[in-house]
Amino acid sequence: MNRHWTLTDLEFVVRWDGQRSGVLPAPFVFTSDIRSYRAFETLKAETAERLSGDPATVPDDVLNIVARPDIRIIGSAWDPQHPNDPAKRIRLHAARRSGRGVLITQLPGRTIWHSGGFTITEHHELALA
User: Fold this and answer.
1) What pLDDT does residue 52 have?
2) Spatial separation of the C-alpha atoms in residues 3 and 75, rounded to whole Å
3) What is the pLDDT of residues 87-111, one digit of tens each?
4) Distance CA 45, CA 47 (A)
Protein backbone atom coordinates (compact mmCIF):
# COMPACT_ATOMS: atom_id res chain seq x y z
CA MET A 1 0.00 0.00 0.00
CA ASN A 2 1.31 3.44 -0.94
CA ARG A 3 1.51 6.19 1.65
CA HIS A 4 0.34 9.61 0.50
CA TRP A 5 0.60 13.15 1.87
CA THR A 6 -0.62 16.55 0.70
CA LEU A 7 1.18 19.64 1.97
CA THR A 8 0.67 23.34 1.45
CA ASP A 9 3.53 25.16 -0.22
CA LEU A 10 4.76 26.55 3.11
CA GLU A 11 4.48 23.17 4.83
CA PHE A 12 6.67 21.62 2.13
CA VAL A 13 9.24 24.42 2.44
CA VAL A 14 9.36 23.94 6.22
CA ARG A 15 9.67 20.15 5.98
CA TRP A 16 12.32 20.46 3.27
CA ASP A 17 14.32 22.92 5.40
CA GLY A 18 14.55 20.11 7.94
CA GLN A 19 16.58 18.10 5.43
CA ARG A 20 19.27 20.82 5.41
CA SER A 21 19.35 20.48 1.67
CA GLY A 22 19.20 24.15 0.76
CA VAL A 23 16.86 25.18 -1.99
CA LEU A 24 13.81 23.15 -2.98
CA PRO A 25 14.50 20.17 -5.21
CA ALA A 26 14.28 20.87 -8.93
CA PRO A 27 11.98 21.75 -10.64
CA PHE A 28 9.89 23.12 -7.77
CA VAL A 29 9.30 26.80 -7.05
CA PHE A 30 8.07 28.69 -4.02
CA THR A 31 6.98 32.32 -3.98
CA SER A 32 5.57 33.92 -0.85
CA ASP A 33 3.28 36.93 -0.80
CA ILE A 34 4.45 37.84 2.70
CA ARG A 35 6.39 41.07 2.33
CA SER A 36 8.26 41.09 5.63
CA TYR A 37 11.14 38.67 6.19
CA ARG A 38 10.41 38.67 9.93
CA ALA A 39 6.72 37.84 9.35
CA PHE A 40 7.73 35.06 6.95
CA GLU A 41 10.18 33.56 9.46
CA THR A 42 7.53 33.76 12.20
CA LEU A 43 5.00 31.94 10.01
CA LYS A 44 7.61 29.30 9.13
CA ALA A 45 8.34 28.75 12.83
CA GLU A 46 4.63 28.44 13.63
CA THR A 47 4.18 25.98 10.76
CA ALA A 48 7.17 23.93 11.92
CA GLU A 49 5.76 23.79 15.45
CA ARG A 50 2.36 22.66 14.18
CA LEU A 51 3.87 19.99 11.91
CA SER A 52 6.20 18.65 14.61
CA GLY A 53 3.20 17.49 16.60
CA ASP A 54 1.32 16.05 13.63
CA PRO A 55 1.82 12.30 13.16
CA ALA A 56 0.11 12.54 9.76
CA THR A 57 2.82 14.74 8.21
CA VAL A 58 5.36 13.32 5.79
CA PRO A 59 8.14 11.55 7.73
CA ASP A 60 11.80 12.58 7.53
CA ASP A 61 12.84 9.23 6.04
CA VAL A 62 10.60 9.83 3.01
CA LEU A 63 12.04 13.30 2.37
CA ASN A 64 15.53 11.93 2.94
CA ILE A 65 15.06 9.63 -0.07
CA VAL A 66 14.46 12.73 -2.20
CA ALA A 67 17.37 14.62 -0.64
CA ARG A 68 19.85 11.75 -1.06
CA PRO A 69 18.62 9.40 -3.81
CA ASP A 70 20.38 6.67 -5.74
CA ILE A 71 18.43 7.77 -8.82
CA ARG A 72 16.20 10.76 -9.51
CA ILE A 73 13.98 11.81 -12.39
CA ILE A 74 12.91 15.43 -12.77
CA GLY A 75 10.04 16.44 -15.01
CA SER A 76 8.76 19.84 -16.01
CA ALA A 77 6.39 20.52 -18.88
CA TRP A 78 3.97 23.21 -20.04
CA ASP A 79 1.57 23.89 -22.86
CA PRO A 80 3.40 26.08 -25.40
CA GLN A 81 0.03 27.56 -26.41
CA HIS A 82 -0.48 28.76 -22.81
CA PRO A 83 2.99 29.14 -21.24
CA ASN A 84 1.79 31.45 -18.44
CA ASP A 85 -1.21 29.36 -17.39
CA PRO A 86 -0.29 27.59 -14.14
CA ALA A 87 -2.94 24.93 -14.76
CA LYS A 88 -1.11 23.97 -17.96
CA ARG A 89 2.22 23.32 -16.21
CA ILE A 90 3.49 20.10 -14.62
CA ARG A 91 6.39 19.82 -12.18
CA LEU A 92 7.41 16.51 -10.65
CA HIS A 93 10.36 14.93 -8.93
CA ALA A 94 10.80 11.17 -8.51
CA ALA A 95 13.53 9.62 -6.40
CA ARG A 96 14.57 6.10 -5.49
CA ARG A 97 16.80 4.64 -2.81
CA SER A 98 17.15 1.16 -1.32
CA GLY A 99 13.96 -0.29 -2.75
CA ARG A 100 11.79 2.71 -1.96
CA GLY A 101 10.51 5.33 -4.36
CA VAL A 102 8.98 8.76 -3.81
CA LEU A 103 7.05 10.90 -6.27
CA ILE A 104 6.44 14.58 -5.51
CA THR A 105 4.11 16.63 -7.68
CA GLN A 106 3.71 20.39 -7.40
CA LEU A 107 0.10 21.53 -7.65
CA PRO A 108 -0.66 24.61 -9.76
CA GLY A 109 -0.79 27.94 -7.96
CA ARG A 110 -2.24 31.29 -8.96
CA THR A 111 0.78 32.03 -11.20
CA ILE A 112 3.50 29.82 -12.67
CA TRP A 113 5.78 31.05 -9.88
CA HIS A 114 3.37 30.17 -7.05
CA SER A 115 2.64 26.71 -5.77
CA GLY A 116 -0.78 25.36 -4.89
CA GLY A 117 0.88 22.80 -2.63
CA PHE A 118 2.53 19.43 -3.10
CA THR A 119 1.49 15.81 -3.17
CA ILE A 120 3.99 13.22 -2.00
CA THR A 121 3.48 9.52 -2.63
CA GLU A 122 5.74 6.70 -1.48
CA HIS A 123 5.95 3.71 -3.85
CA HIS A 124 7.88 0.52 -4.24
CA GLU A 125 10.86 1.35 -6.44
CA LEU A 126 9.53 -0.59 -9.44
CA ALA A 127 6.22 1.30 -9.36
CA LEU A 128 8.06 4.47 -10.40
CA ALA A 129 9.08 2.88 -13.72
Assistant:
1) 92
2) 21
3) 999 999 999 999 999 999 999 999 9
4) 5
